Amino acid sequence: MNRLLLTVLLFTAMFTAHAAEPLPLEYFIKHGDYLNLSLAPDGKHIAARVQYDGRVYLAILQTEDMKAVGGIRPADKDIIHTVNWVTNERILYEYAEKQTNLDSPVPTGELYAMNIDGSQRELLYGYRASDSRADSRLSNKDSTLASQEILSFLDDDDRNILIAEYPWSRVGNTYYNDHKRAPTISKLDIFTGKKRKVEVLPHGYSRALASKSGEVRFMSWVDENNNGYSAYRKDNDSEWISLEKVFGEVEGLFPQGSSDDNKFVYLSGRHGPEEIYTLYSLNLETGEYKRIFADHTTDIENYILDKNGMPAVGIIFPNTSKYVYAATKSRISDVHKMLTDAFKGQTVNIVSRTKDEKTLLVHVSSDVNPGEYYLFNSETFGARFIWANSSWIDPRTLLKMQPIVVPTEDGEKVHGYLTLPPRRSTERKPPLVVVIHGGPHQAGTRDYWDYDAETQLLANRGYAVLRVNFRGSDGYGKRFERLGYREWGGAMIKDVNDSVKWSIEQGYVDGSRVCAYGASYGGYAALMVAVREPELYQCTVGYVGIYDLSYMHSESDIPTIWGGESYLEKVIGSDSAVLAEFSPIYHADKIEANVMLIHGSKDRRVPEINAEALFEKLTSLGKDPVYLQYSQAGHGVYDESNRQELYQGLLDFLGTNLK
Q: Region 451-473: what's the mean pLDDT?
């Protein structure tokens, strides 16, 4: 323990806080450098996805000295999308490719493999995988119009893995996985790409759970009304039976993983009146199931497995990050508690480990720490610093996110975060930018106590930044999420405006200098808050926002995806009068704030017609909005040169309106 604390203290002593100074814009708009790292099973090498000059490389590093011994350099603007160790010598990886009509790389669904020395590199699976020749009818592998997911690395088989194949459907000239066709389970040779079909699952939009030996005994699926189901079978030759019929009162639980000894499976589900997302264990011999973690008031956001493959540590964000531990004692829980003591006030996650669990790869982050990696020896308790993500940023220049709780008129509690810039007592209060998150009603669509580049950029430029988890946000239980259904332009917007007024009333910010900003739903909300409270905002910025809710039904790609129509009916409905009442474009005359619109021409989720129509409407009213349009961007701008222009434009707009 002493050695671990000494290592951490020596590193963090360099980062005592001081007042933020203006930093170059590119510090905040560049994509991170070390995106993620993973340990080889024997711990002798690390696979790293490293970003540089617009590309994401794969680097193979020796753990002992971090010397590069191999890797992959993608073609121009392509990226390495995922990396997995399959043996000590062989890795699997996926590309995302830069396409001519989009600025962001798109995953291809293909799977590649190579040895760590670069030998035996092979495209194993995908739509270009065929090795047949025009002069031969012999082929070791075929091209497949599908995406794949690794289900099991098959511990007892050094040559094959088990995958799920998700067939593509064709719409016009485009192929994509619309989830309507049932997945195929196959064995795939990691050296030749030869595959053997094992079975076809009985449902579309389904997911199989496989053991380390390749047994598929659990599956779950979602129907087109977004109802979820789970099923079990005794072995691969048995019929699928509803999970409830086999194990009794397990309705609403969905299998997520199984123990290495095959005696337990862990499932996700909801608990209590708030319907908090948590995890359950199911004993396959006795049929007994129970909650893994004690009471927690917000959803499990992430978890760490023990040596038997069962959840041992849950990570939650009621305000800052907190932890809950499984009742079953484990070595990994003890180690994690030790690490949290050493890295106080930060989020500690064990992201990779050796097969013998002697060496752990630990990721540490916080609101003022973009992320650091440490190698931890679980026997000697020694920790060695490996790398800091966004390494060009000095954490001393970043500003803390303060958790807040805002009571609502109807008795709810809205959680959020307020970041304040440094201010001398003689200076006036800072202007406020409320940054509204996207989604909503989907996993991960909430604000977290974590490093956020937009928040830090705005705070670095002297703005107070408010982020609000309004009703409808994820993370606070299903009941709280449901409060946002069909309230996109109602109670959800009121939560944001009430939180802004609360920040003003508490004396934190200058109430005469307020701007709203958000993307996707947040872009919509940035306009709607100014519709509902015109006198509250001096400016508002909509980034890839929806401004006519009827376009969600007629123009968005959501109705074309599995369960999309059902989702829209549930969360916004189809009543034209209500959709118009909740659409900014039909209330443009009420907007007193100056408006900036940002949109990508290739956006399929929220097509550009939204921004074009609102721009025309505002212009006809003499309001002259600023409009940044990006011809190659989709649902968000990826290209760093365009991001430079976008955020400089945003800063200029804020500077003009919040003087």
A: 97
Q: What amino acid is encoded at 284 in this protein?
A: L
Altogether, the residues listed in the chain come to a count of: 659
The single-letter code of the amino acid at 353 is: R
Is-contact 329 335, C-beta < 8 A? no
Q: What is the pLDDT of residue 19?
A: 46
SS3 at position 588: helix
At residue 154, the 3 state secondary structure works out as coil
pLDDT confidence bin for 131, thresholds 50/70/90 = low
Q: Cα(257)–Cα(270) distance, rounded to whole angstroms?
A: 17
CA angle 376, 381, 382 (to 5 degrees): 60
Q: Which residue has the tokens 């917000």?
A: 298
Whether residue 523 has pLDDT greater than 50: yes
CA pair distance 421, 461, nearest whole angstrom:
8
The whole-angstrom separation of Cα 75 and Cα 210 is: 34
Q: What is the pLDDT of residue 11?
A: 43
CA distance 153 to 160: 7
pLDDT in tens, 422-436: 987 678 999 999 999
Q: Rounded to whole angstroms, how far apart are CA atoms 401 and 449?
A: 7
Return the pLDDT at 98.
73
pLDDT for residue 364 is more than 90: yes
Residue position matching structure tokens 């003087």: 659
Containing 577, the helix (H) or strand (E) segment is helix 576-581
Closest CA to 164 of 113, 83, 109, 231: 109
Token pair of 329, please?
Answer: 């004692």
CA–CA distance, 206 with 649 (Å, rounded to integer):
44
CA 421 to CA 462: how far, in whole Å?
Answer: 5
Q: Rounded CA gap, 140 and 156, in Å? A: 23
Strand pairing category for 594-600 and 539-543: parallel
Q: How far is CA 175 from CA 109, 148, 178, in A?
A: 11, 14, 9
For the cut 60, the answer to whether the pLDDT of residue 154 exceeds it is yes
Helices (H) and strands (E) in the chain — how many of each?
13, 38
Cβ-count burial 155-181 (b if 16+ within 10 Å, e if not): eeeeebbbbbbbbbeeeeeebbbbbeb
Distance (Å, rounded) from C-alpha 317 to C-alpha 365? 13
Q: Token match 């992959």: residue?
A: 72
Q: How far apart (Å, rounded) are the C-alpha atoms in residues 558 and 593?
A: 30
Q: CB of 625 within 8 A of CB of 596?
A: yes
Q: What gap in Å lies between CA 107 and CA 82, rounded to an integer?
A: 10
Kindly calculate the radius of gyration of the chain based on its CA atoms and give it in whole angstroms.
Answer: 26
The tens digit of pLDDT for each residue in 210-244 reads 999 999 999 999 999 999 999 999 998 999 999 98
The neighbour count for residue 351, using CB atoms within 10 Å, is 15
> pLDDT by residue (tens digit) across 617-657?
999 999 999 999 999 899 999 888 999 999 999 999 999 99
CB atoms within 10 A of CB 318: 16
- What mean pLDDT is reported for the chain? 92
Encoded tokens for 500: 């802004």
pLDDT at position 172 is 80
Closest alpha carbon to 633 in 607, 652, 594: 607
CA dihedral 114, 117, 120, 123 (to 10 degrees): 30
- How far apart are alpha carbons 427 and 183 in whole angstroms? 62
Structure tokens at 481: 């999420």
